[in-house]
Prior knowledge:
- This protein is α/β, with parallel strands linked by helices.
- The protein contains 5 helices and 8 strands.
- It has a 5-stranded mixed sheet with strand order 4-2-3-5-8. It has a 3-stranded antiparallel sheet with strand order 1-7-6.
- 40% of the residues are buried.
- Belongs to the prolyl-tRNA editing family. YbaK/EbsC subfamily.
- It comes from Thioclava marina.
- Its EC number is 4.2.-.-.
Amino acid sequence: MGHATPATQALSRAKLAFDLHEYAYEAGLAQIGLHAAEAIGAEPARVLKTLMVEVDGKPACAVIPSDASLSMKKVAAAFGGKSAKMMESAKAEKLTGFHTGGISPFGQKRASPVAFEQSALGVERIIVNGGKRGLMIELAPADALSAAKAEAKPLIADQ
């Protein structure tokens, strides 16, 4: 399996250190992030899922723990809007250049604003999608924010 994706290339160009984890992606699973966490033996809170949303009709990218849910109210506020909704899969794929289940916050075809859930960044290393199904990138939270030109914001629903 080749490891070069627009996501890994973006991190390499930025000269950021990262490790790759591969797992057998299973299509049709509702909880892709939780499946990935289990498959690579990582805590779900460290494995982040990348969700494409629309805030007041404009694209944005929210990165949250795989065991959490988005709060659309918090997402709208994080991106300076009034309302937020999930982006349709086909639109997300066209915009990012990645397939659903393989969307990464790094190296998207058309960059949109990115926010990471702030409570997820208090660990030494986080794991995010590597730009293709079954490929995960592990890196330092500060490097992830830098590479994605992202901000840390509250995004998740109260558990």
